[in-house]
Amino acid sequence: MPAPAAFFAMIVFGSIGLAAFIYGKKVVALRPIVLGLVLMIYPYFVSGAILLWGIGMALTVGLFYPKQ
């Protein structure tokens, strides 16, 4: 059983990932689709709460970082 902080991170970033994936499909944009999938899948492979929060925040910032 994961720690409460890790479990909460899984729920938060999974939800953000799902929203990004749906948005990406709606506007046909590859970046939100890929980042959304990664946000939904990565918690299954990372075990530490601090690492979960760090990776999740970095990927979430990547969603909003302007394209070049």
Number of H- or I-type helical stretches: 3
What's the mean pLDDT score? 92
Task: Look at the helices and sheets and give the structural class.
Answer: mainly alpha
Could you estimate the helical fraction of the residues in percent? over 70%
| Counted beta strands | 0
H/E order of the elements? Answer: HHH
Structural Rg: 12 Å
Principal-axis shape equals elongated
The major beta sheet can be summarized as: none
How far do the termini sit from each other? 41 Å
Provide the low-confidence segments as ranges. Answer: none
How much of the sequence lies in strands comes to: under 5%
Question: What tags apply to this protein structure?
Answer:
mainly alpha, 76% helix, elongated
